[in-house]
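Predict structure. Chain length: 90.
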Amino acid sequence: MSDHVVVNIAVQSILLATKLAAPMLGISLAIGLVVGLLQSATQIQEQTLTFVPKLAGVALTIVIAGHWMLSQIMGFTHSLYATIPHLLQQ
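Prediction complete.
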């Protein structure tokens, strides 16, 4: 197994992790922005106020996008297992 193959697998796994984390991070960012604007408008400066909406938003995102995320992880795992014979021949 050459260095190029190892780097390619590492890059693919990092891209997959980024792709899977993006929906949850995006929802968390959007909810934090909205709650921050509401806190600025109402002058309520409670630090823990954003925790529950972010938690609910991330949980809802996992419920909605969980099937897609799991299929992405399974596809990546299947492709890795499929390349094992090819990697052993090198």
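Summary: Helices lie at 3-42, 51-89.
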